[in-house]
Design a protein that fits this description.
alpha/beta; globular; DNA-binding
Length: 402
DNA sequence: ACTCCACAGGAATTGAGGGGTG
DNA sequence: CACCCCTCAATTCCTGTGGAGT
């Protein structure tokens, strides 16, 4: 018997549950689709496209619907020999207009002619980008997915929509479709950017439990063998996801993971219990990933809190954490950061849900401050941090103190 | 109602590390 | 090689804040 063999107990195929799966038909988003169609209709007559701002929380179908719409638009345009090109830019790891401009340029270029991500002056990159856009003919639709990542730095959102008017681009029309899951992002845009970018808006509401149920059922039919799922599994996944985020991604992940666990246990049916386990595992994975990606000093900060926690001396305030952090950093042979910086790290760790914090105010005697405590299992923290060799013996020393 | 503590968090700046051109 | 560009963690400096004590 080999190391591997086909497994036919649970999954036919996991593909329909994966994040990158593109279904033929989009479920439960008819309204948004028809809004898109109405707005983009003029493009078919060769008129300049309107800029669109699509917003809604993660996993509510913004990207899926947008891809689906542009795919259809392109196919239909082809039939009538209308020139349309599209670029879908994921701004997930892009934090400035500069980086987005580089990415757009590279997306439109051949692979071997990609430009470097740093080094050029900003204006040069913008010019390269406009050149590349100009090379396309007809209408160019640029999707900026998760555009909120660029934060304050919204130069590109000002430049792109005006490129034609200003003469940087002559032979094509540009349409920008911004996608954001941060609802405040739109408000924080400068007025001149907001007016042009959010010419048209499409709002994606969270899915409710019923909508999730129907999405899950469709996918599950393809993914699982018949009668593998217990009756209440899909409703439970739908309910958990609807209550938490209304995200289809979360619901699908849950279902996939529940199946995974069933297979691991060599069970031939997926039960509600597995769904609940999957829910817990998901949370654990999220925290683990968060910790792994912390910088050395953020980890040292976290270990300082953990040290207090071991002795039951939580919650603690930054004023007390800082000296402890210094001690631990010295032991780890790292130089110590400023108090202000540790204050930022603590803030960041709290936002990620790794720490808990609570505001205190004792008036005249000391004004206001935060108190922190661990919001995560100690062993999970230690196990994860132990893998970072830069921290040497520190995690194991702390472990022994437990 | 007013005061006043000291911390939270914004703003400006730096310097090392990625890379470019000529 | 010299000189220029962008990014990001970190530093320094500083103002705004909320409520216990008066």
């Amino acid at each position: 018997m080999g190391l591997f063999e086909p497994d036919e107990s649970i999954f036919r195929t996991e593909t329909p549950l994966r994040e990158d799966y593109e279904p033929e038909d989009i479920e439960e988003r008819d309204e948004e689709i028809s809004e898109y169609v109405d707005i983009l209709q003029p493009v078919m007559n060769g008129d300049p496209p309107k800029n669109i701002f699509a917003y809604g929380k993660t996993g509510v179908g913004k990207s899926e619907v947008t891809k689906h719409i542009l795919q259809n638009l392109k196919e239909d345009a082809d039939k009538y020999e209308i020139d349309i090109s599209t670029a879908h830019i994921s701004c997930e790891n892009l934090t400035s207009s500069y980086q987005v401009a580089v990415e757009i340029t590279n997306e439109l270029r051949e692979d071997k002619e990609r430009i470097s991500e740093t080094g050029y002056p900003e204006q040069k990159v913008f010019n390269l980008m406009y050149e590349e856009i100009d090379r396309q003919e007809g209408t160019v639709l640029i999707v900026l997915d998760e555009i909120d990542n660029i934060g304050e730095n919204d130069k590109i959102l000002y430049g792109l929509p005006r490129a034609v008017a200003k003469g940087y681009v002559e032979s094509s029309n540009i349409g920008v479709i911004g996608i954001s899951n941060d609802l405040e992002f739109r408000e924080n845009l400068s007025a001149k950017v907001r007016d042009t970018l959010a010419e048209e808006e499409i709002h994606f509401p969270p899915y409710d439990a019923n909508e999730l149920k129907s999405i899950l059922s469709k996918r599950a039919e393809k993914a699982f063998y018949d009668d593998v799922l217990n009756e209440d599994v899909i409703p439970l996944c739908a309910a958990l996801a609807a209550r938490d985020s209304g995200s289809a991604r979360q619901a699908l992940e849950l279902l996939n993971k529940a199946g995974d666990i069933a297979r691991r246990n060599e069970d031939d049916s997926v039960t509600e219990e597995y769904v609940r386990k999957a829910q817990k595992e998901r949370e654990k994975d999220r925290i683990e990933e968060g910790i792994e990606n912390l910088t050395t000093h953020a980890k040292l900060t976290l270990l300082s809190i953990l040290d207090f926690d071991i002795k039951g001396e939580v919650p603690v305030r930054n004023a007390d954490v800082y000296p402890r952090y210094k001690k631990i950093a010295n032991k780890a042979d790292a130089d110590t950061l400023s108090k202000r910086r540790i204050h930022d790290h603590l803030s960041q760790l709290s936002l990620q849900g790794i720490l808990n914090r609570e505001k205190k105010n004792i008036g005249r005697q000391g004004g206001s401050y935060y108190i922190y405590e661990l919001n995560t299992d100690m062993d999970l923290v230690l196990n994860t941090i132990e893998q970072d060799s830069r921290l040497g013996e520190i995690p194991s020393i702390l472990r022994e103190k437990r």
